[in-house]
Specification:
Radius of gyration: 21 Å
Order of helices and strands: HHHHHHHHHHHHHHHHHHH
Distance between the termini: 35 Å
Number of helices: 19
Low-confidence stretches: none
Largest sheet: none
Helix content: over 70%
Amino acid sequence: MENSSHHIGWKTAVAIVVSNMIGTGIFTTLGFQLTDITNTYSIFLLWIIGGILALFGAFCYAELGVHFKGNGGDFIYLKETYHPILGYLVSWISLIIGFSSPVALAALAMSKYLSAFDFSFGNGFAIGVIFLVALFLSFSLKASSRFHNFFTFIKIAFIIILIILGVGLSESETIKNSLQFDNSWQNEIMLPAFATSLVFVTYSYTGWNSASYIAGEIKDVQKNLPKSLIVGTVFVTVCYLLVNFIMLKHASVGQLAGKEDVMGEAANNMLGHTFGKVVNIFIALQLVATISGYLWVGSRLTQAFAKENRLWRSLSVANQKGIPVRAVFAHAVIAALIILTGSFKEIFVYTSFILQLFASLAISTAYFIKKEHRKIFKSNLFYVFPTVFLLFSVYILYFTLIHNPKESIIGLGIVAVGIVLYLIDKKLSH
């Protein structure tokens, strides 16, 4: 029997889901969407579709997480269902993109929001923050939990206060806000830009599956895993709709379109420059929980993967407290390299594209769980969840490939490198 101090309750699991979801996407992507889509109904629809897809994905992962016991998430689902090469590739993608890119993007967004102050917070600052968080996660599971829960508390309290202020305060009389409720949404949802905007939205919801990666560390997993995934996803969807409403209400399209620090623009109009800067500080602080969540979960996944593969074996080493320290720092180093090699939007698009592709492959494994083996959803209506998820995924991936070929090819190139490494690993093992 494992020591219960190595297990977390459903509330910590919800905290991991919420902190992995609420992060960079919600505070940066509206500006990218507004370059082509300006109707408020269209924008709300994007975020509602994203929430439904995340929830359907969460239902599939809840069933998969209980069916395939232990840590590992997609790695186990794909390896057991299809072929070890897919398990290998999803782990490679998790190492290089899935858990390292969001860390890089969160750190870049932090430096962008803090640049509201007259000091320039550049890439060096972003990289420094990543290594500092990695250090804090290296002591023990208890210290990691406390550190993570503290910053998650800041994140959730900040979001709730921001929503109350944003909804309660009346809009500025000198600035025309971005709220637009007319029939133009009917044309906008047919545009290819609507599909490519969904890429940003689905990225903002990535993290709905995070608790499934650490299923082996959750108490009473059959009850607590679905609970944490569903509670976390519904909470985040409601928050996302309200945060978008606030940004649209308190800033003009001209102030937001094409920008990354969109909430900062809205906060300045809403609270004046001094309090606007305070909001920027809190956005930066809550991004610490995003970095922490991805490093925590990503390192566990990498550790599980490294144990089984000769090439990566050294990353599976844990310290005396059971923390996979090498894996934590491997993610930190890769995140730093990503920051040094790409622009924010470029990293964003290729990350979103590849994560969507592999989430779809993992979700497709849900079709292989026989009805009599399902523990949560006994009815055949269960198949609605993976089917809707996959149909939207194909739609999103197709338009991203056509509209952002360069970024999509970078993503596929990273997958190709993974295939080569798999073949090398196989040779080494023999």
